[in-house]
UniProtKB/TrEMBL annotation:
Any one GO molecular-function label of the UniProt entry: polygalacturonase activity
Transmembrane segments: 52-71
Transmembrane recorded as keyword: yes
Family: Belongs to the glycosyl hydrolase 28 family.
Pfam families hit by this protein: Glyco_hydro_28
Protein name per UniProt: Putative polygalacturonase
Keywords, alphabetical: Glycosidase, Hydrolase, Membrane, Transmembrane, Transmembrane helix
SMART domains in the record: PbH1
Length: 450
């Protein structure tokens, strides 16, 4: 009798099968006892009988099965079976001959619009947007002409396409997401040119913004206001105020609304602002501004290069701001942090709501014909913390003292920085080894006379 235990693994099961096959083969070839002719009645002589043909086939089949089972069990972990994935639903529908509709395309004139620069076309824009919304998305083509309109709402999955020679007189985006603005020219706005308010996932690229460079206050170029995940790249801006200004609400109103501007990238932009700054943060930043990268930006013929401006009453924070590869040409003040920008919407602000300014870095800052390369004006109530300068060389117009100005600033200089940095900052070599520690972090060295 052959006794086997339950196999605890594939390998054990294979061994049991092999043992069973061997036992079957042994049984098939068992000796058969028969009396020998002529032998005595009490004496028998054993001999091996021929193995039956069918029994041999059974034995070979069982041995082969056991070997195959053993091979599969030991190689299963190394062999992957590749099967064709299920066909996507859309492809399956197409293969069955079902037609998938393409987004509709509308012409603004279909809704009664007139592009003469005098007719108000707000109703036409609204009707076109409603038609696109009803179809679940589509494109609205604005043909050549001057299309006057009051503000109107867009809808999801919509493309607003401006043909060559088309001008929309007025644009602002509010509480929207997944926006792409590209290959357009915006000019002569009476106020902020392109204002995105409380928006997410915004890309602005290959855009030209033009406004008079003098006598046109508040004609900012691009103002992301309480926005997240914004990319501004490959743009040219020449305006009468800040080229780009990141905002997030003003004093008590911005604090109450509580929408920060965060995760913003500004790349490959050329800016001119003869009366203001190339790139500003604030002064309306009461919802907070953080995680901003400004790189590969050229500022020319401007009053200031890059600037952070705030004041008591703003509250919130400006933190984790990185400026990298900034070039300055004919700029009055290159780098500015100002903490007494005392403009308020009304008397209801809280002067004890002071902002936090920290973790600001300037790397690869170069330029020529710059009057004051650095002016960082912290205060006892709003100190500027953890500022880093690394690889800076700015040619100055006048060989005067106080061209690297600081007050109430804590931070460090790494490697070569020209002009000579203020005494408020620790000095490190390129290996990040401390060379000289500052003992004058609260010294005031601000001179507005030049």
């Amino acid at each position: 009798m052959l006794e086997t235990a339950a196999a605890s693994s594939p390998r054990a099961a294979a061994a049991a099968a092999a043992a069973g096959a061997a036992a079957a083969a042994a049984s098939a070839s068992a000796a058969v006892s028969s009396p020998r002719r002529g032998g005595g009645a009490g004496h028998h002589h054993r001999r091996w009988a021929p193995v039956p043909y069918r029994a041999c086939l059974v034995a070979l089949w069982l041995v082969g099965f056991a070997l195959v089972f053993l091979w599969q069990s030991t190689s299963m972990g190394r062999v992957r079976l590749y099967t064709r994935p299920p066909m996507p639903k859309r492809a399956a529908e197409a293969s069955m001959g079902q037609w998938v509709a393409s987004p509709p395309v509308y012409d603004l004139r279909e809704f009664g619009a007139v592009g003469n620069g005098r007719t108000v076309n707000t109703a036409a824009f609204e009707a076109a947007v409603a038609a696109i919304d009803e179809r679940g998305g589509g494109r609205l083509t604005v043909p050549a002409g001057r299309w006057l309109t009051a503000p109107f709402n867009l809808t999801s999955r919509m493309t607003l396409f401006l043909a060559a020679g088309a001008e929309i007189l007025g644009i602002q985006l509010m509480r929207s997401s997944n926006i792409i603005i590209s290959n357009i020219t915006l000019r002569d706005s009476p106020f902020w040119t392109l204002h995105t308010y409380d928006c997410k996932n915004v890309t602005i690229s290959e855009t030209t913004i033009l406004a008079p460079i003098a006598g046109a206050p508040n004609t900012d170029g691009i103002d992301p206001d309480s926005c997240e995940n914004v990319v501004i790249k490959n743009c040219y801006i020449s305006v009468g105020d800040d080229g780009i200004a990141i905002k997030s609400g003003w004093d008590q109103y911005g604090i109450a609304y509580g929408r920060p501007s965060a995760n913003i990238i500004i790349q490959n932009v050329v800016i001119r602002s003869m009366v203001s700054a190339g790139v500003s943060i604030g002064s309306e930043m009461s919802g907070g501004v953080s995680d901003v990268l400004v790189e590969n930006v050229h500022v020319w013929d401007s009053r200031r290069g890059v600037r952070i401006k705030t004041a008591p009453g703003r509250g919130a924070y400006v933190s984790n701001i990185a400026y990298r590869n900034i070039s300055l040409e004919n700029v009055r003040v290159g780098i500015v942090i100002k903490t007494d920008y005392n403009e308020h919407p009304d008397e209801g602000f809280d002067p004890k709501a002071v902002p936090i300014i920290e973790n600001i870095s300037y790397t690869s800052i170069h330029g020529h014909r710059v009057r004051v390369p650095v002016r960082i004006q912290g205060s006892a109530e709003i100190p500027v913390k953890n500022v880093t300068f690394h690889d800076m060389s700015v040619g100055i117009v006048d060989r005067k003292n106080h061209v690297f100005q600081c007050s109430f600033v804590q931070g460090q200089v790494i490697g070569y920085v020209f002009p000579v940095p203020c005494k408020n900052l620790d000095q490190y070599n390129e290996r990040r080894e401390l060379v000289k520690q500052s003992t004058f972090q609260n010294i005031s060295d601000i001179d507005y006379s030049f």
